[in-house]
Amino acid sequence: MDNLIQILFNTNHEMPSGYVLIVLVAICLIVPPLSRYILQKRMSEKEERAGKQAESDGASEEGSEKKSS
Fold first, then answer.
1. pLDDT exceeds 90 at position 5
2. Is 41 helix (H, G, I), strand (E, B) or coil?
3. For a surface tag, which of 11, 33, 53, 68 has the fewest beta carbons within 10 Å of its beta carbon?
4. First CA to last CA across the chain, in angstroms?
5. For residue 14, what is the DSSP state?
């Protein structure tokens, strides 16, 4: 646990090792595009569900209008 705190908060005020820098750069390069992809995927799935529900609502309304005629 102490090692994790030292890595995160640099309590020794030392230059981070190359491994730590590589991990931080990888996180900076991977996380933003990944989060955008996940957001777009969720939004498209939400739109698809809304479209399917609108279609089913429209079909049920048409069926009820035909029955009441």
1. no
2. helix
3. 68
4. 73
5. -
* 63 burial via Cβ count (<10 Å: 0-12, 13-18, 19+): exposed
Paired tokens of 44: 């498209």
Given this model, what pLDDT does residue 60 score?
62
Q: Give, as one character, the DSSP assignment of residue 69.
A: -
Q: DSSP string covering 16-54, please?
A: PPHHHHHHHHHHHHHHHHHHHHHHHHHHHHHHHHHHHHH
pLDDT in tens, 12-56: 777 778 888 898 899 999 999 999 999 999 999 988 888 888 777
Residue at 5: amino acid letter: I
| CA dihedral sign of residues 15, 19, 24, 25 | positive
